[in-house]
């Protein structure tokens, strides 16, 4: 598994009646492929995994794998409360042809370090698929510490980390402790350029769902050492990227996709589409960004 590059945490598209809109989903995927993304992550927070049925997750995974037909890898997110459920999804992902897993600590239970490491090892030892650990203590309340990663080294298929601790220096700490043993992907849009400059291998991105060309351009320019050019795009992008670090990131990013013509704002309850002052404020950010969009 090549964990280097831009990996969209893809949104799940719905019709107004709440059913899956696979045509619009693949329209978005096609555009992102044209812009040069390196893989797709299904069933994350942006994918509204918590409100998808088991059958819908299976359908979404199977159809995406078949549609992409090996062009870029499909990575399935696992965010479960029970170890047996995580093991089920690891096996199902392998069966459906996914090429990797993104794995969160146990949900809905504040597990301690021993429990989290045991959980991660149980999933890793059950599958041949490569795994990216999602380290996001801000949103999910569990910090995967450097010492915990030291225990996970023995699981060869735990290959990477989605670094969302909000501490840029964690990239350096991981490199100092483990060298290149774990690939590091930034998971916070507003810290992406900073972490890439500090040596992160990739970017698990949110606003890429609406703005893939700019996201990929920043990644490529940083990798080419063209920091001034990357910084110019990044400064334009920051007001939009801040939509990714809000509890309503799903509604915000889906509204941006709609304005860009590659998505819709439809979400599943309990989420509701935006109204009133909040909608006006978010649309102002999006429309101003589109008006000032850099020519690449």
TrEMBL record:
It comes from the Bacteria. Keywords: Lyase. Pyruvate binds at residue 204. The active site is at residues 134, 162. One of its GO terms (molecular function) is 4-hydroxy-tetrahydrodipicolinate synthase activity. Pfam families: DHDPS. Transmembrane segments: none annotated. The keyword Cytoplasm does not apply. SMART domains: DHDPS (SM01130). Belongs to the DapA family. This is 4-hydroxy-tetrahydrodipicolinate synthase. It comes from Algoriphagus ratkowskyi.
């Amino acid at each position: 598994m090549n964990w280097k590059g831009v990996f969209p945490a893809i949104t799940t598209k719905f019709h107004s009646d709440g059913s899956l809109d696979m045509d619009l989903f693949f329209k978005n995927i096609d555009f992102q492929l044209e812009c040069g993304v390196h893989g797709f992550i299904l069933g994350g927070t942006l994918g509204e995994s918590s409100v998808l049925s088991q059958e819908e997750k299976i359908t979404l995974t199977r159809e995406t794998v078949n549609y992409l037909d090996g062009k870029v890898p499909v990575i399935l997110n696992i965010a479960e409360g029970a170890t047996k459920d995580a093991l089920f999804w690891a096996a199902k992902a392998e069966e459906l042809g996914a090429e990797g897993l993104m794995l969160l600590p146990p949900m809905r239970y504040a597990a301690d370090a021993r429990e989290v490491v045991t959980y991660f090892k149980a999933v890793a030892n059950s599958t041949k698929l490569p795994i990216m650990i999602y380290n996001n203590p801000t949103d999910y309340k569990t910090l995967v510490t450097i010492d915990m990663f030291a225990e996970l080294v023995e699981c060869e298929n735990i290959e990477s980390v989605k670094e969302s601790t909000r501490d840029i220096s964690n990239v350096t700490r991981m490199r100092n402790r483990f060298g290149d043993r774990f690939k590091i992907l930034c998971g916070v849009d507003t810290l992406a350029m900073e972490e890439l400059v500090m040596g992160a291998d990739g970017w698990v991105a949110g606003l890429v769902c609406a703005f893939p060309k700019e996201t990929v351009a920043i990644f490529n320019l940083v990798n080419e050492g063209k920091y001034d050019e990357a910084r110019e795009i990044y400064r334009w992008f920051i007001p939009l990227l801040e939509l990714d670090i809000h509890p309503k990131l799903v509604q915000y990013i889906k509204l941006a996709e709609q304005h860009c013509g590659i998505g819709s704002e439809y979400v599943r309850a309990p989420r509701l589409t935006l109204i009133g002052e909040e909608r006006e404020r978010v649309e102002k950010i999006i429309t101003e960004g589109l008006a000032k969009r850099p020519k690449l």
